[in-house]
Amino acid sequence: MMKVAPEILSLIPYQPGKPISETKRELGLTDVIKLASNECPFPPSEKVMRALQAALLEVHRYPDGAGFEMKAAAAKYYGVPEKMVSFGNGSNELIDLLIRIYCAPEDQILTSKGAFIAYKISAQAARVSTVETPMTGGFGFDIRAMIQALKTNPKIRLVFLPNPNNPTGSYVGKAEFAQLLEATKARGDVLLVLDEAYLEFVRAEDYPSGEAALSSHPNVCLLRTMSKVFGLAGLRVGFLLAQPEVIDLINRVRNPFNVNSLAQAAAVAVMNDAEFIEKVKRATWEGLDYFTHELKKLDLDFVPSQGNFVFFDTGRDAVEVFNQLLKKGIIMRPLKNYGFSTQLRLSVGLMQENEAAMKALREVLA
Length: 366
Ligand SMILES: *Cc1c(COP(=O)(O)O)cnc(C)c1O
What we know:
alpha/beta
């Protein structure tokens, strides 16, 4: 018999949002609205479509393995030197690579309970275990507990901090973030990975600057993605902004053509499409404000969100509510895999989709 590591045998894969086609098939529905994966609800802009069409003519060639133009566009967009940029097949690949580079099987990563689950899954696939500090009462991160773990646990190599967090929409403010930065710096053998997938949607005034942390602290790196406000989830592009030494290590271990040529072309085009980005941001804020208004009317608890989604408490078994909503053609996201049994996560869609979602929710809870 082939030997397989127990960490691999017990691995529970990432559970994506339920696809529209599957929901239609299983329930015999023709109209289905998916608000389950925090995607951008708008299709690609004209600019992106033109870039994709041009790139289609070249798909018989390998992509640019160095991602020259994409890297230049990202460096310009994020305001960092090109030598501080690398890229992955979605930021998910970069999470994998960071763990592969920095953690041996006996090492550990640190994150919070209720944090984005991809870190823990990537770690387990690399036979690396995850230390999770408890959440605070308001579904936030307990930064003091994280600092305590850093002080007492020498096995920790990477700290994953999604800010704002998915699925809760909560965020870590300036003061607490500064404390965590200092604790990470004091360790020297630990890298803080700040995952800012929802950065563009943040409205909180005391949200800490990742760029400032990157320039003042050598053991900080930032994850950015093209999957949310940029609307390219299907193409899989993420960026790592880090010290050149970290970037060099990523470039050694990543596959030579990890981001395909269509994805590279679209990423360059959308980073130059300020109008599209602005449109998505505005529609998201409008949708989010609508959701919070409606959830209040329904007297449901929710976490004020800094993302493009809202985490709310249905007050009953959330899988039940999820299934009832499915029958009405609305896909939300149950969070049992996070240990949240009464909460659902709802992504902002187009306004008519948001309204349909709230109508269905009202009916299900009535
Ligand atoms: C959606 C999301 C990402 C993006 O993942 P990709 O692989 O780039 O699509 C990263 N981090 C968090 C916290 C997310 O919610």
